[in-house]
Amino acid sequence: MSALWSVGAGLLLLLLWVRHRGLEAVLVHHRWVFVCLFLMPLSILFDIYYQLRAWAVWRLHSAPRQHAQRVRHIQAQVREWKEEGSKRYMCTGRPGWLTVSLRVGKYKKIHKNIMINLMDVLEVDTERQVVRVEPLVSMGQLTAYLNPMGWTIPVVPELDDLTVGGLIMGTGIESSSHIYGLFQHTCVAYELVLADGSLVRCSRTENSDLFYAVPWSCGTLGFLVAAEIKMIPAKKYVKIHYEPVRGLQKICEKFTEESKKKENSFVEGLLYSLDEAVIMTGVLTDEAEQSKINRIGNYYKPWFFKHVETFLKADRTGVEYIPARHYYHRHTRSIFWELQDIIPFGNNPVFRYLFGWMVPPKISLLKLTQGEAIRKLYEQHHVVQDMLVPMKSLEKSIQTFHVDLNVYPLWLCPFILPSNPGMVHPKGNEAELYVDIGAYGEPKRKQFEARASMRQMEKFVRSVHGFQMLYADCYMTREEFWDMFDGSLYHKLREQMNCKDAFPEVYDKICKAARH
């Protein structure tokens, strides 16, 4: 009884404090209160629900049976749109706050919403080494499904809640991408419902133009209803080597050198200042030295980027064996390093041991509850951007990031970009090594102004034939956008498949200069 009185008194004091400060002031300046008391427990309930649902679907083996029926329902909605006179563009009916992107798209309020409830693993074909999945299957769900079977996918983008559909229609990358390319390059086939309601399968040999045009199209060519992704045998551990490097030129040389080595299963860099970094290389293995196993994914463990920083501070190299699934999702608990701005004490050992099992809060719930004041604050004083630039421009790119943003850490992830048709490909006719530079946090540059600074960054990226990930805020004009991306195949197919009346152009859907 005394415990209940204590809890009640604590809640009363909290409510009085909120009333005194004002709800908006608390949500903006003390957001951790709301996140810790409400969003973290709610995120646990979300996870429990989706895990139970996935388990039930697996036990009943109902996903393949229900898939065809669900696709027919999508087709029926598209045909209904046509019968109504095709007066509005179509888009998926999934609420905008459920996406991992921090961008708030208002188009869903004015477009025809097509409900797409496709979130299951459909088939694991071990002979072809292919897994067939629905578009709302998440990375956390997929690795949890495949790893016990002894399989994984070649590119497992970081965060648990990233979905297959988002990674295909947008893009995805991981520290294995220097071997396998972007997430789209590990896919062997897509199934889409087109603007006329027909169901089409495309691959490198079947409807190949559509296959190459779908990635980066952001759902403006059709509705993705299934995808086939390559699988590779899973191993128990990643043997990871940490090496601190100082001096920007040495950092770039070391990172480029390691990225070219195919014997490295994984390559990643964390840049903690302009001239201090830790370069990590990893190899998949089934054997491990027991004394060097680090189960970094356990809730009480330090956040990964903080753990990596200890090697830099101690100026020492190190070797660890991380369980493979822990490695794949190593940045999930801290949402890279974004969570430190929301819960400043989140990496404190006391907090980790007591409440770390509830971390991280769902990004979707953070979006849903952020309010207009926080949204504007983030838009003007916070950066979440991934710029893909040729490896040969790495040093110049880091210097540009430092001058225009001054955000650290920076995430460095190499990838091979094949010379395929579509919106994104190298300038020449051969594959080229690129690097994703990820900037997440509050810029320390004086007089930072979001629009002006990002337009300067976008101009630089275009000048080196790089690309901007489309999940983030984009400030380019239409001409600048199509200067960055190759729209030749995309526009040809939109004309051929009568998409112009069915879906907005990708620029109109994602760029701030055009968005409604």
UniProtKB/TrEMBL annotation:
Specify where it is mainly localized: endoplasmic reticulum
Enumerate the transmembrane spans.
32-50
**GO cellular component term, pick one:** endoplasmic reticulum membrane
Ordered alphabetically, the record's keywords are: Cholesterol metabolism, Endoplasmic reticulum, FAD, Flavoprotein, Golgi apparatus, Lipid biosynthesis, Lipid metabolism, Membrane, NADP, Oxidoreductase, Signal, Steroid metabolism, Sterol metabolism, Transmembrane, Transmembrane helix
Compartmental location: Endoplasmic reticulum membrane; Golgi apparatus membrane
The residue ranges of the FAD-binding PCMH-type domain are 50-234
User: What cofactors are annotated for this protein?
Assistant: FAD
Listed Gene3D superfamilies: 3.30.465.10
| Annotated EC | 1.3.1.72
- Pfam families per UniProt: FAD_binding_4
Q: In which pathway does it act?
A: Steroid biosynthesis; cholesterol biosynthesis
Does this UniProt record's set of keywords contain Isomerase?
no
Topology versus the membrane: Single-pass membrane protein
Q: Say if the entry is tagged with keyword DNA damage.
A: no
This chain's function reads:
Catalyzes the reduction of the delta-24 double bond of sterol intermediates during cholesterol biosynthesis. In addition to its cholesterol-synthesizing activity, can protect cells from oxidative stress by reducing caspase 3 activity during apoptosis induced by oxidative stress. Also protects against amyloid-beta peptide-induced apoptosis.
Which PANTHER family does this UniProt record tie to the protein? 24-DEHYDROCHOLESTEROL REDUCTASE, DELTA(24)-STEROL REDUCTASE
Q: What is this protein called?
A: Delta(24)-sterol reductase
